[in-house]
Prior knowledge:
Strand order of the largest sheet: 3-4-5
Structural class: alpha+beta
Distance between the termini: 33 Å
Number of helices: 14
Radius of gyration: 29 Å
Strand content: 15-25%
Number of strands: 14
Largest sheet: 3 strands, antiparallel
Shape: extended
Order of helices and strands: HEEHEEEHHHHHHEHHEHHEEEEEEHHE
Amino acid sequence: MGTSFAPIYAILYMAYIEDHIIYDDTHNLYLPEIDIWRRYLDDCWMVWRFDTEYLQEFVQYLNDNKWGLHFTINFNQYKITYLDVMVTRNADNTLSTEVFRKYPEYNTLLLASSFHPKHIARNIPKSQFLRMRRICSEDKTFQTYSLDLTNRFRSRGYSMGYVTTARNFASHLHRDELLRYKNKRQNKPSHIHSTLRLTTTYGRNTNKFIEIIKHHWNIVLADSAVSNYVPQSCLFSFRRGKNLGGFFNHYKHHSESKQLQLAQTTILTDKLIGCMPCGHCSNCKHVLKTKQFSSNNSSKVFDIKVFANCNTDWIIYMAVCSCHAFYIGQTSRPFRLRISKHLSDIKCKRTSNVLYKHTLKHNSQISLHCH
């Protein structure tokens, strides 16, 4: 979902939409027909009481909104999938659930030999079997899918001992107990809250580093000036180190933007000049890569003597039309935000925007570059 805050933003936005078009009975005349409505991020699941024709009218009502949201629907009277769950309606009108995997069913489990902390590879089988135990409503279904999961773990190099132990642990637990809500904060022992946690980048020498700290932690506790402020033990958590994905990128201008970050604090500043896309934002397609620009009035060519991209602020920029007309503007904000403002004004048909007025006259497209 892109950036780290995107799921939270989607949750808040969809909750706002639901309050206005789902739960508001003054607008939603179809609310009495909705028996159950559930949502995870932007994926919704519901039980509908009436016929399919009335259901299509409800979907049309959802799509007729002022926020520009478009809802698609997939419905079936007997079987439906939602995320990784297959829900089936039985002959006695009860519901049963089992695991659903999208086609093609690739084995995406983490390799046991992957360079991760050892406890992650040990705990993944347990977490996956517990997840399967929660989803499968029938013991027979759980046994079938757990056997498939065992084979997938084995093909990824996991020890049969870890996999078998995790499978047996999950099979002996009652599903109702796993589905019951547990307040983890209240169940934590009081000493957990006062534990010191050290976060570091995981590397090949991390385990030795942890052993050294644990071995000499008694020295810290022996210091009377410090012992009153530190706990009896220390926990460790890790952030991901650099990998190949951090060095190779599909964006054409990624390396140039990296050089720009270096140039802001080193002597490379005078070696990077010109205008170019940053390679990371949606407005890059509106920014031209160039080291010079020309005046349509005098045909004189001017060199861009500094480096600028979508993230540069305090710049003077030029908007060029396909009819060769141009607009000169300035902004103190990052250039990508200024582009977004222009595009929003054009999309919303704001007559106060000069570029929108120009597109009305010429029915033309605008491209942007800055200097």
